[in-house]
Amino acid sequence: MDHKNFETTAIRTQIERSQYQEHSVPIYLTSSYVFEDAEDMRASFSEEKERNIYSRFSNPNTSEFVEKIAKMEGAETGFAFATGMSAVFSSLAALLNSGDHVISSRSVFGSTHALFTKFFPKWNISHSYFNVTEVDKIESLIIPKTKILFAESPTNPGVDILDLEKLGEIAKKHHLILIIDNCFATPYLQNPIKFGADLVIHSATKLIDGQGRVLGGVTVGNAELIREIYLFSRNTGPALSPFNAWILSKSLETLPVRLDRHCENALKVAEFLEADPNTEKVKYPFLKSHPQYEIAKRQMKQGGNIVSFEIKGGIDAGRKFIDAIQLCSRSANLGDTRSIVTHPASTTHSKLSEGERSETGISPGLVRISVGLEHVDDIIGDLKQALNC
Ligand SMILES: Cc1ncc(COP(=O)(O)O)c(C=O)c1O
Which of 159, 239, 286, 388 is least surrounded, with the fewest CB atoms within 10 Å of its CB? Predict the structure, then answer.
């Protein structure tokens, strides 16, 4: 039975029960599956029969996880990966040929940027970047070999918003495959397929796990494209482990309630930071001062859990602030129950040159907060004492 409401889909999408009639789904820690006879084996390998063969291709726990995300995103189907980056890499590598060209927003996660600039050129795959505020320039970057339009929204770490509807229109008009990394929004806050995306990618390591335990990734979308990604991945082996799939599928059961609180806390933190005299350029999609506030309101249900800001006084003040933090964690992850403070210039985006960082809006003093689920007064209390140190 298909459910109309997100919360019910999150909880009641479940693989078939075994003969033991368990209530909670068991973990299928098996690398392979057995066959009735030689004919059963032949028919399974030739894909005349749809069934599990080997856990590099499929597994009941990964199937449940993929089915849930696909339903939540309004996608036809998908494939689950060991990490968010294996989802990004395998999806792009499966679809691109030597000579192809990708157009991407300049503000993408550091490792995605490394794929475009350091690794894809080895296979003669080129790219052009557009700035988040220059969506109108995308059409001028299209060349005959352009195949994919790629973007993240909200972006990491700048929390900029791209107009997904506009990207969808451009992709449709020019027959480009539109791929959106929806990591910061999760399927609960934003569904890019509604705006014309062909594929949606998540790092499940972040808010989908939500408790900083496991790595995972997933790509969902158009069935023909997923078929190509599946064939590439079946042979190259970036599959998600059944254990991690079980954790992630369980975590999805609480995604809506967790996200409601994350977003409520993040808005309060953003409002506090905006009013504090020691900060500037506070960015949160649902703050009225956000440059793309109207677009965020149109395409997102709530603003997410990431807030970025700058401390007056540049890099030295930034380091002093990070050293003074007591409750929040100094870590590079995001989307955990624990609030996390990161300095992108010296961590997640340290491999970029200073010029590249400034082009993507990462100033030396930029701080990113992944607002967690501690009591919001305690989170704000910690930020306040650190800002006043
Ligand atoms: C937007 C975005 N995409 C992809 C990734 C990569 O995910 P993973 O660390 O699971 O490989 C990250 C990680 O921070 C991210 O923030």
Answer: 388
Pocket of ligand 1 (CB under 6 A): 83-85, 88, 109, 152, 156, 181, 183, 203, 205, 215, 217
- pTM of the predicted protein model: 0.96
Whats the size of the chain, residue-wise? 389
Which whole-number Å values give the CA distances from 70 to 61, 82, 200, 206, 222, in the listed order? 14, 17, 9, 18, 10
> Mutate which of 132, 156, 162, 179 to test ligand 1's pocket (most atoms within 8 Å of Cβ)?
156
pLDDT of 27-72, one tens digit each?
A: 999 999 999 999 999 999 999 999 999 999 999 999 999 999 999 9
| Separation between Cα atoms, residue 267 and residue 171, nearest integer Å | 32
Residue whose CA is at the smallest distance from ligand 1 atom 8: 84
Preceding omega of 242 cis (within 30 degrees of 0): no
